[in-house]
Amino acid sequence: MDFELLSIVAFFTLVAFLLWRDRKKIEFKHGIVIRKMQRGGEVLDNLVKRRERFFRILGDIGVIAAIITAFAGTALLIIFPIFRQTPSIAPVLPTVSNYQYPGPIVSVPIWYWLIAVFVIMVTHETMHAIMTRLAGIGIKNYGFIFFLVLPIGAFVDPDMKKIARLKLTQKLRIYAAGSFGNFMTALVVIALFFSSVWINNNIIEGVGVKFENTVEETPARDVNLNGVIYEVDGVSIKTQAELRDVLNKTEPGKGIKILTTAGEFELTTIESPYFANMSYLGIENTKTDYRYKLGMFAGGVVPDALIGSIVFWYGLLSWLFVLSLGIAIVNLLPMKPLDGGLIFEEFAKKYFGKFGKQLTKIASVFIAMLLIFNLFILHLLKYLLSLVV
After folding, report:
1. Helix 110-134 to helix 52-83 angle, to the nearest 10 degrees?
2. Is the separation of the CB atoms in 36 and 155 below 8 Å?
3. pTM for the model
4. Segment holding 279, helix H or strand E
5. Model pLDDT for residues 277-336, shown as the tens digit of each residue
6. Beta carbons within 10 angstroms of residue 28's beta carbon
7. CA distances for 185 relative to 121, 182, 188, 288, 313, angstroms
8. Which three-class secondary structure state does DSSP give residue 208?
9. pLDDT at 175
10. Both ends of the chain: CA-CA distance in Å?
11. Cβ distance 112 to 96 under 8 Å?
12. Mind listing the domains of the chain with CATH numbers?
């Protein structure tokens, strides 16, 4: 059992224990666990009171963003199938990382999924709560939703009867707030990503490519290639990407000169068994050799554990951005019970009166059909067509 799987088991065990400890405060039905909480309301109230004008402006911006996103998201659902099928996203455990879900599903490493979903849930529901309190509506409670021990959502529980009596602008702020919070999360993630890149580039640098072993009956084994590669045919090599780029541009069968920390090696490349028309040396388990750039550690080798942490951080930020943006867009589609459906219904009732609710049902069915077509039917049609052709 590797460390990643062990950490996942430990996490779910801890969640199960906490839920069992608070079993008198949870609701359980058909595998769905709802944990309600009531603390923290005073902090939220004080925040809203101190920054009332700021949150009012923020709410108005959120409404504008929600309306634009609703139109753009619907257009994408109609246009996207022309270019490619809309993929679904699902978490995957480390032991089944090679497992392929049926259909066009993108697998997300489970730790990325858990952290990203938690951040998205908290920001989404907190923004709903802020705009609800801004409108003077109390929140009965809030909490998290689990499927058994897997976190799948969060919620705030305001007085919906009082919300129904609010002015249109107040209701729109509340409905748009959650997804707008996810948009803001995506912007923060972008800032964190580029600042992290800047910091890393100023602290560490790649100085070559190291490898663990060579493959039998390959050029690297024939010339006993060893050491850290730092130049190929006069081209400086500092990272794996640079080595891969040089080999991709080198025709198989060409003689090249490689400089490593162990000396100079001349060999003739062969075609890669993995990529057509790409040169292959025959080295395995390659890694960029990173060194510190600053202070007393300058020139020292950067531990693999630190590089692994940096890679994990970049991966987490990437998935947090994708999931935040994706969830915000989907949630603003004009389909009930999504927030976008609630926004659509308010406009429909305002401009079409009693026919507004019926129009909302029609829009909801239309969007639901588009989603089903994009996620499932289109894939099936393409598969059946491939059998015929």
Report:
1. 130
2. no
3. 0.79
4. strand 279-280
5. 889 999 988 999 999 988 778 888 899 889 889 989 999 999 999 999 999 999 999 999
6. 13
7. 11, 5, 5, 32, 16
8. strand
9. 95
10. 45
11. no
12. 24-200+312-388 (no CATH), 212-285 (2.30.42.10)
